[in-house]
Each structure stands twice: as structure tokens, then as C-alpha cells.
Amino acid sequence: MRKVELYDTTLRDGAQTEGISYSVSDKLKIAQKLDTLGIQYIEGGWPGSNPKDMQFFKQVKKLRLKSAKICAFGSTSRPHLDPKKDANIKALLKAETGVVTLFGKSWDLHVKHVLKTSADENLKMISSSIKYLKSKGRKVIYDAEHFFDGARDNLDYALKTLLAAEEAGADVIVLCETNGGVVTSALAQLIREVHLKLNTPLGIHTHNDSGMAAANTIAAVEEGCVHVQGTINGYGERCGNADLGVCIANLKLKLGINCVSDNQLNKLTEVSHYVSEVSNMRHRPNQPFVGESAFAHKGGVHINAMVKHHATYEHIRPNLVGNKSRFLISELSGRTSILLRAKQLELGLEKEAAHTKKILKLLQKMEHEGYQFEAAEGSFELLMKKAMKKYKKFFDLEGFRVIIEKAKSGKLTSEATIKVKVNKIEEYTASEGDGPVNALDNALRKALLEFYPALAKMHLRDFKVRVLDERAGTAAKVRVLIQSQDEKDSWGTVGVSENIIEASWQALVDSIEYKLLKDRK
């Protein structure tokens, strides 16, 4: 069976994403996680460019990686300089990795305007740098930077740079689509031409500036490339690199290439989310294969069909990549999604039952007012149980007040006072917070803690505010979504009002009532 090796450059190319800045500790954590996914090569960084990367190469030696080999990345020697005297080449050797990834120029435009040297000198730089690294016992992966742009302008010279790398002993030659502007058909044609000239195994490295990085990568493999470079979640400079997760899933599930084991593929969603978390980047919900919405169904026709057969609206089984199907609650989803949720909660609803019609009508009315339940499953469960009269209130609000004060020093403080009644016992408390909503949350839980101690194990994980009609200015309705968590679960709740405090209060109350309700089950 055909083999394709995976090369991850999240720690170097991915780190060039706007908004990402990895610490050495971050890079070590990600390297360990990539190893569990079965990645064969992990590019650790450019040791000649900054002290942080050099520190990573020192510390990564302590990790017990099962399958991955760490690679140091850098450029060929500078013009008219012996590689053994070049600071960048010295740094690559100092990193003490068994594999070195070296990039050189394939585009004569770069040779002339960036390196400011001759075409022949560039060929010599490629050849001498690879030969020197090979003489030091390194496996050399040669990245032919800007190859496709170079081939477009001067195919003869671009091929000469590859031949120089091959003759010097490069173990793999990677064709780099650095600017991300080549369409798939043109890329495939060029790879066919390269295969006629070279015997060295070929790799592919694409960027996503035209939205075709993953497609170009898959096409390259179909044209015979056996080495695939990319980043987790498609991180990278500008529009990013080929998303390695998308490539892995397509290689294995669509082309039948066992680049990872079934068990490793099952970790794909977990690894994707983990890298997002460490990168401090929001995970894109509609990301193919691994996004929260990748197998989410909202339309009533879709949900109805999915209940009958999973293949109607899913191209693979989600569990293969560690994901799952989701049926979203909305006015578009009809009765089927309500019945599915009711079945999960063992509420015994029937399609034509009066309660089902009542819940659907209420759902449509509330979503028309601005509520959104697809990310607020806690609020929707409460709505259903209240409509079916299967809900008993845990407390009654007697009133609350929120004060925001700015001191002479300039410091802004928020204080909330609240009065609630539990089992005819009145509780009155006050609490400060970082803002009015935080103060209100603190005061409410403080008032209820004596009656419901389990609330101490719950906290707010996320708080989002969405203005529903910007044209209404400060009088516009807002929707507040709150994500809460305890030691076992996470759940979402929603509130809508022209007043942000009122909307927040609705979502807060639902959050606490849902926690108490699920603990009582």
C-alpha cells in the first residue's frame, strides 16, 4: 500500500499567524500532542532566528516522543559564503536534530531582488549547503520555496534548482506553493513535469491565499508526492497553510492512504481543539471534519432524513475523526429536533401531541424575538419542561439592584444587591464584581449557596453579547449567551432584552436553574 509521510509546521509556519505567540512551554505541549496523532516530522522552528526556538530544541530532547522526529528549519548559506562559516547553518547543526529542513530559492525574481546574487551562485548555495549538512550526518528535506511561481516565470531555471538539490543528496524535495495563488490544475501539471526530471521523492507545501491549499495538497499526492506539509487548523501567515487535519482525513478516508492509524485518526478533533486552546485562538466551528458544526444539522428536512439514515447528510461517520453528530434546536428544525431532544431527556413527547405543538410555537415566537437555542441547550431544556409543566422553581426573585461607580481615582467598581426567596425563606445579599454582570452573578450565587451548596462547583466559562439590530443604536435588543461549567458538564443559556443587565440576568438564572435541575436528576 502506498505511503505518505506527514510533516507538521505549526510550531514555525503556524506561529507566524497574526495573533499567535507561542512560549517554549506551548511548543513542547503541542509537539507532544502532535506525536499522539502519528505525525512523522515536527518542524520545531528556526534556530538561527531567535533564542526561543533554540531553547525549544534544547528542551524537546527530554520529551519521549513515540513516532515523531523533530526538524530544525533554516535557509541555505548566504551568497559567496562557505556553508561551514555561515551562522544560519551553524545554528541548524547546533540544534542537534537528526533531520534538517533547508529552504532555497526557486524563483529567479527572488534570486535577483531578494538575494541580490546571480542565478549560478544561487544554485551553488543550494548544492553546497545540502552537501555540507549531509556530510554531518543529517537527513535533509529541501523546501523549494516559491517553486510554482518560479516555474511559471522561468521553468528551466526552477527545475535547475531542484536538480541541484537532488545531485547534492537531498532526501526529499518539497515543492512549495508559497504565495498560495496557483490553481489546482496548473499545480498538478507542473508536478507531472517535475516527475519526468527527478528521481528524488517529492513533497508538497501549500498556502491558502486562494482557498485551495488542502485541495492542492490532495492533488499533489494524487500526482505522486509522498511527503505532505501543513499546519493544524491551517494556521500560518496571511491566509494560512494547508490544514493538516483536513489533509489527513481526506488522505485516509477518501484516498485510502494509511498515513495514520484508525486510532490516531480518532484523535483528530481532540488535537485540533487542543492546538486552538494552546494557541489562544477561537476554534472555527465550521472547520471541516473537526469543527463543532461539521456534523451539525439545523434544517427540519435534514434532521428528519438523518434520523432515518446517517448517510443522507453526512459524508463520513463523525466518530471516525473523533467528532459527533448534532441536531440543532431552532425555528427551522421543526418538530423532529424537539422530539429528539425530548427522547434524550426521556420526556415522552409524541409528534402530534399538544405539548409538541406548544413547544414548537413557543420556540418560533422566541427565536423571532431574538432568542437562539442552538448554543443554549440549557435554556431549551428548561423551556420544554416548563411548557410541559414538569418543572418546579428553585427560587423566586424579589428584586435586585446594580450600582456602577467611578471613583475619583478613576477606578470603576460594580456592586449588586439581590433579594431572593427559597422555600418561603428570604435571603438578601450584596457582592462586588469586575463588572455589573459579574457582580450580579456573585450576589445571586452567594444568596443561594446556603440552600444549594453544589453551586460552589459551578463557574461561568464564557460570556457573549450580540446586538440584534444595530440600527436601533443604544435602544437595540441584545442577546446574551452564557456558557457555564461544573466538574462534569458544560452548558449554554440565553437571554434577550433591550437592557443588557436584564438579558444577562435571564441567562444567569437559566444557567443556575439548569445546574440545580441536572443535579436533581
Describe this structure in words.
This protein is of the alpha/beta class. The chain folds into four domains: 5-279, Aldolase class I (TIM Barrel, Alpha-Beta Barrel); 296-369, no CATH class; 370-386 and 457-521, Double Stranded RNA Binding Domain, CATH 3.30.160; 395-451, 2-Layer Sandwich (Double Stranded RNA Binding Domain). It has helices at 24-36, 51-59, 87-94, 108-115, 119-135, 147-168, 184-197, 213-222, 244-253, 262-265, 268-279, 300-308, 334-344, 354-369, 377-387, 436-448, 500-520; strands at residues 5-8, 41-45, 69-75, 99-105, 139-145, 172-177, 202-206, 227-230, 296-297, 326-327, 396-406, 412-422, 425-433, 459-467, 478-485, 490-497. The strands form four sheets. Strands 1-2-3-4-5-6-7-8 form an eight-stranded parallel beta barrel, surrounded by eight helices. A hairpin with a 2-residue loop joins strand 12 (412-422) and strand 13 (425-433). Helix 7 runs parallel beside helix 8, helix 8 packs parallel to helix 9 and helix 13 (334-344) packs across helix 14. The longest helix is centred in the N-terminal third of the chain and has 22 residues, at 147-168. The mean pLDDT is 90.
Oligomer: single chain
Question: What structural class do helix, strand and pairing data support?
Answer: alpha/beta
- The tally of helices reads 17
Distance between the termini: 52 Å
Tally of DSSP β-strands: 16
Low-confidence stretches: none
Give the strand order, joined by hyphens, for the main sheet. Answer: 1-2-3-4-5-6-7-8
Q: The CATH topology of the largest domain is what?
A: TIM Barrel
Q: What name goes with the CATH superfamily of the largest domain? A: Aldolase class I
